[in-house]
Specification:
The protein is of the alpha+beta class. It has 9 helices and 8 strands. The strands form 2 sheets. The chain has a 4-stranded antiparallel beta sheet. Strands 3, 5, 6 and 7 form a 4-stranded antiparallel beta sheet that branches. A hairpin with a 5-residue loop joins strand 6 and strand 7. The longest helix has 21 residues.
Length: 250
C-alpha cells in the first residue's frame, strides 16, 4: 500500500517536511560516496531553512506541554499502564528540556562555522561547489567515508533536539488515528470534519490501482480527487470507483 499524508494546518505541514528531511539526511549520511555526503549537506541546509521559522520553537514546546497535560490526566486510569505512562512522560520531559535549552536560532551553528557557511552559500549556486570554486571542500571530499561521516554527524549535533521533538510529536499524532475503509465514487470523495478535531489525514491506496490522490482540506472538510497518470506523466480524472483506507489523526 502507498501511504499519502495530508496536513490540515501549517504547523503539522512543517513537522512533516522536517521529518522527511531528517529521514533523507540519515540515509545519505550512512552511505560512503562523496556525492551522497554532498547531498547530505544540501539536506542539512534544507533542515536549517525549514527549522529556522521564528515561531517553530514555541509551537513545538506548546505541543509537548499539551501532550504532557493530556497524558497526565490518565493517571489512576485502570486501563492505562502506569509504567508505560511514566516512560512516555519521561520522553516528553526529556525532549522539552533539550529543545528548550537549545540555541534560539536553529541556523546559528552554520553561521558560526565559516566553512559550513561558505559551503551553504556555494550550494545555492548551480555547480558552485566545483574544485576551483571551493578547494577546501574538494579536499574534504577526499577523506575516508568514516571521517566524512563523523564530521557531518558532529556538525549536525545541534539539530538533534529538533529531530527528537519532531519524531515524538508525529509519533503521538499518528497513534491517535483509526483507519477505515472508504470508497471514492467515480474517483471523488468528500467528508465533513468536526471543527478543529483533526490535524492530519493518512491515505493508503493499493499501488496496482495506479491512481494519484489530489487532496484539499482544512479543519472543516476534506476533499479527495483521484487521478490516473499516463505514460507521459499527464494526470486525468479517474472515473472508476476506487477503494482506499483513510485515517484521521487528532
Amino acid at each position: 500500500m502507498i501511504l499519502f499524508e495530508h496536513p490540515f494546518n501549517e504547523r503539522v505541514r512543517t513537522y512533516l517536511r522536517l521529518e522527511h528531511l531528517f529521514r533523507r539526511f540519515e540515509v545519505l549520511v550512512q552511505r560512503d560516496h562523496p556525492i551522497d555526503h554532498h547531498f547530505g549537506f544540501a539536506t542539512l541546509f534544507e533542515i536549517v531553512e525549514v527549522g529556522g521559522r521564528s515561531d517553530l520553537k514555541s509551537d513545538i514546546l506548546k505541543d509537548l506541554e499539551r501532550h504532557k497535560q493530556q497524558f497526565q490526566s490518565y493517571r489512576g486510569n485502570p486501563s492505562v499502564s502506569e509504567a508505560m505512562l511514566d516512560q512516555l512522560l519521561g520522553r516528553i520531559d526529556e525532549s522539552f528540556e533539550a529543545f528548550n535549552t537549545a540555541s534560539t536560532r536553529i541556523n546559528q551553528f552554520v553561521n558560526d562555522n565559516e566553512w559550513l557557511s561558505a559551503l551553504r552559500n556555494r550550494l545555492a549556486i548551480p555547480g558552485g561547489t566545483c574544485s576551483f570554486d571551493l578547494p577546501s571542500y574538494h579536499c574534504w571530499q577526499q577523506h575516508s567515508p568514516q571521517q566524512r561521516r563523523d564530521d557531518i554527524i558532529r556538525w549536525s549535533e545541534p539539530l538533534r533536539p529538533l529531530h527528537a521533538c519532531v519524531d515524538l510529536l508525529m509519533g503521538l499524532l499518528r497513534e491517535g488515528s483509526s483507519a477505515q475503509k472508504v470508497m471514492a465514487t467515480a474517483g471523488q470523495f468528500q467528508q465533513n470534519l468536526p471543527q478543529g478535531r483533526f490535524q492530519l489525514m493518512r491515505l493508503r491506496i493499493d499501488p496496482s490501482l495506479n491512481v494519484v490522490p489530489e487532496i484539499s482540506g482544512n479543519r472543516m472538510m476534506v476533499s479527495i480527487r483521484l487521478m490516473v497518470q499516463d505514460e507521459s506523466g499527464h494526470l486525468q480524472a479517474c472515473t472508476q470507483d476506487v477503494p482506499f483506507e483513510m485515517g484521521l489523526c487528532g
